[in-house]
Each structure stands twice: as C-alpha cells, then as structure tokens.
Amino acid sequence: MMRKAMWVLAAGFALAMAACGGGGQKNALMAAQNAYGSAMRWGEFESAWARVDPEYRDKHPLSELDLERYKQVQISSYRELDATVLADGSPARMIEIGVINKHTQAERTVRYREEWRWDAEKKTWWVRQGLPDLWTGG
Questions:
Q1: Quick check: is 132 in a domain?
Q2: Which domain range does residue 76 map to?
C-alpha cells in the first residue's frame, strides 16, 4: 500500500514538472506580458521600453522629449480586452489603457494592439511596435 502511494505521488510530481517545463515559451510570454503590463501600469515607461524589440528600438529611438511626454501622464488602468494569434503565428493582445493628464487631471481611454515576437536566440519575447501612442489613441 505504501509503495503504491509513493508511486502515485512520484507520478503526480513528474506530471507537474512536465507541465511546468513543457510550456516554456508560453510561460515566458506570460511573464513578459506581465512585466510589460506592470511597467505600464506603474508609469515605468523606461522599463516598458526595455521590453520593446531591440530592432524596433534601434530604428525608432526614444528621445528625451518622448520620455518627458510620457512623464506628463499617469496610467489609471491597463487591461487586456482580447488575445489573438496573428497570421504569422505571433500572439497579439488588444489593450485598453486609462490615461490621466497630470496637468489637467482629465482622464481618457486609449486602445491599442500589442504584438509580440519570440527571440529564439535570447529566449525571450519582445513587443514588436514600441510603446503605445497615448496622445492620438493607439
């Protein structure tokens, strides 16, 4: 009886470990999206920028003026509305962001689509298109 219980326990442990290891890319995506979303929620735009695809960052550098504009807003909400898979197999999410102008205290809502790219070499996910445009809506 004890031997059977140990076998069941060992099998359950092996199954749990396989479930954790088998979804490596999926778990990495969830971790990257959570980190990016958290940075956005707390207004840590430089941290969010670090999650943007390096190729995009090289082609579209974030200027000091851009950074100053982001510092003029506060994020009141950041939520996923929908998750889809693009034609090339990449994940995408429709996001709704509550944005408050720190000077006027006026709040508005911005929607935009996050697209993610897997970097097999670095084993990480990147946001493809940069930070959301919080001034023209996407």
A1: no
A2: 25-127
| Residue type present at position 72 | Q
Domains held by the chain: number: 1
Per-residue tokens: 58? 């090289």
Judge whether 41 lies within some domain. Answer: yes
pLDDT digits (tens, 9 = 90+) for 82-107: 999 999 999 999 999 999 999 999 99
4 belongs to a structural domain: no
Q: What is the pLDDT of residue 34?
A: 96
82, 138, 97, 29: CA torsion to nearest 10:
50
Buried b / exposed e over 58-87, threshold 16 CB at 10 Å, is eeeeeeeeeeeebeebebeebeeeeeeeee
Number of neighbours of residue 97 by Cβ within 10 angstroms:
22
Whether 99 and 73 have beta carbons less than 8 Å apart is answered as yes
Give which of 138, 86, 137, 136 is closest to 115, Cα–Cα: 86
**Residue 6 located in a structural domain:** no
**129: three-class secondary structure by DSSP:** coil
